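Practice problem: Nucleoside-diphosphate sugar epimerase
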Amino acid sequence: MTMNTSIVIAGATGLVGRETLESLLRDVRVAQVISLSRRKIEMEHSRLQQWITADLSMPESPQMNVQPSVGIITLGTTLKKAGSKENLRAIDVDLVVNIATKMKKMGVERLYVVSCLGANTKAMSHYLRCKGDMEAQIEALGFTGTTFLQPGPLAGDRDEKRSDEKLLQGVMKLVNPLMVGKLKNYMPIEANVVATAINKLVFMSEESRVSRITSQKMRWLVA
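Answer key — structure tokens:
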């Protein structure tokens, strides 16, 4: 990726999304960031353009300074917020795939999506199965490059932590000294580490059409 890159991001009001947006706006190589969200972000910046819609739809005739070539999606919900497994799937799969499809139509070539560790279409967990289905459907869209970030449980302030994250974080405080090798992927990871890793990846040459980045690789990228 070169200088003067234009990026569109969906989900910048969330924990990882907000950190990602701030990281991108600090990067002088980024010419423009278009934020797609349901509510206004309390942030002013000469290179930030906000598209605010109730259903996260894109404007029919968007006004853009530069055509975005990079898309970032950091959307996700919890079963408690969604209210049902069906509603969770509507957001974590249907909405994310719909936005990715629209990004491709607007000219985005490389897409970065925050998923989660353990995402698998055949997982026993409904949450992990939804993430796996989302990844499979986005992969089928055929972007020039697609990167799925698969962090372990997220550490950091958030209005609501997923119950499985709360439990896992408590356990990890006790067993962290024992975590070695690939087990480190299950350690809690700070949202700003995920965000910085996304920023780094955007400007790295990537030959693979589809890649998956776990927590261990994210920490290595930002070290």
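Discussion: The chain has one domain: 5-222. Students who identified this feature from the tokens alone can consider the problem solved.
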